[in-house]
Design brief:
Blueprint (H helix, E strand, L loop, with lengths): L1 H27 L5 E7 L6 H10 L4 E8 L4 H14 L7 E2 L15 H5 L9 H11 L4 E6 L3 H9 L1 H4 L4 E5 L22 H4 L2 H8 L5 E4 L1 H4 L5 H8 L4 H17 L7 H10 L6 E8 L5 E4 L5 E4 L4 H14 L11
Parallel strand pairs: 1-2, 1-4, 2-3, 4-5, 5-6, 6-9
Antiparallel strand pairs: 7-8, 7-9
């Protein structure tokens, strides 16, 4: 019996030593940061600001740049300039996207906050995107949380370079569930989701680009930021949460709404941690009206059809609450 106990103790000690060694290896050899570019129509719905805040609060990501998309892209770039300045991340380049408008697009509710930041010149988003891909072939995750106009233009200009992206993660589409139809309600059918419907031709190009595509549709992204969580964020009083609070107030007043839905944040969360939204390989067809339908054929995308709100907020809230990003900006009166 003594020999058996000694053998058991020896095995336990070996196991503990192995665990400690693995932890030391993990600490001394941390996982490399992902290279990402974020394409956003920040300034309309406020979920873009919360999504960019999540990206800024996530050490797993090395943000090569943020590109403004859709509508008044120059003013969106100024909003990004101010947000990055306020949070001490002016080292992140901002590029201005293609200005394009369409009936039904959202109002720029946070324009007054953006206008406080002095205008400056920015590189063109398509030029910036293609140049970064050339510098980092096969390494960049492109997170698209806007109509896909910039991406479609990059494909049209240089499809071979665009195909060297590592992957694309987008918030877009509606497979089974439409707006205001979260997972606990009976399914009533899909809608033409905004990011796809504003520029269906660009979406069609992205879905057929050959780049691995991960899609977070309405089915998985209708996650309301309730009052309790809002108060936790808005009373934290860091540079980031103060900025989010002001942007929220302008959005709320402009839309006469209280509870934002964090659609775009699911795409950022997935890019960091795929366990946030398990995906299914599907072949998705994008029609001229922006509907995204599952059809027979070889899968052209990986689609998350259901997320888990508790898992998401357990992931999201500590990052945004505990990130003490600091900075200062010089603004026009």
């Amino acid at each position: 019996m003594r020999t058996i106990r000694q053998l058991f103790s020896f095995v336990v000690l070996i196991g503990l030593a192995t665990t400690v060694s693995l932890r030391l290896i993990a600490q001394t050899n941390p996982k490399p940061q992902q290279l990402v570019i974020v394409d956003t129509d920040i300034g309309d719905d406020v979920d873009d600001a919360f999504a960019v805040g999540l990206a800024l609060s996530s050490p797993e990501l090395k943000i090569l740049g943020i590109t403004s998309a859709w509508g008044d892209t120059a003013l969106r770039a100024r909003l990004l300039d101010r947000l990055l300045c306020e949070t001490g991340r002016s080292d992140i380049p901002v590029a201005v996207g293609i200005e394009k408008h369409a009936p039904g697009q959202g109002a720029f509710t946070q324009s007054r906050w953006a206008e406080r930041q002095p205008a400056r010149s920015h590189p063109a988003a398509v030029d910036f995107l293609l140049e970064q891909i050339k510098q980092h072939p096969g390494e960049i995750t492109l997170i698209g949380i806007a109509p896909l106009t910039n991406l479609g233009a990059a494909i049209e200009r240089d499809p071979a370079t665009f195909k060297k992206l590592k992957r694309i993660v987008i918030m877009g589409g509606s497979i089974h569930r439409g707006y205001d139809n979260p997972n606990y309600m009976p399914v009533r059918g899909p809608d033409a989701e905004y990011n796809i419907a504003m520029d269906p031709a660009a979406a069609q190009a992205v879905f057929s680009s050959g780049v691995p595509l991960y899609v977070m549709p309405l089915d998985a992204t209708q996650l309301p930021l309730d009052e309790v969580k809002r108060q936790l964020i808005f009373t934290r009083s860091t540079n980031l949460t103060d900025a989010l609070s002001l942007l929220y107030q302008q959005w709320s007043r402009g839309n006469n709404m209280q509870t934002p839905t964090l659609f775009d944040d699911v795409a950022v969360a997935y890019a960091i941690d795929p366990a946030q939204c398990p995906v299914t390989p599907l072949h998705i067809d994008v029609d001229a009206k922006g509907f995204t339908r599952e059809v027979e054929g070889t899968p052209n995308s990986f689609v998350c059809l259901q997320s888990h709100p508790d898992l998401f907020y357990d992931f999201y809230m500590p990052r945004v609450l505990n990130q003490k990003l600091t900075g200062s900006c010089v603004k026009e009166p």
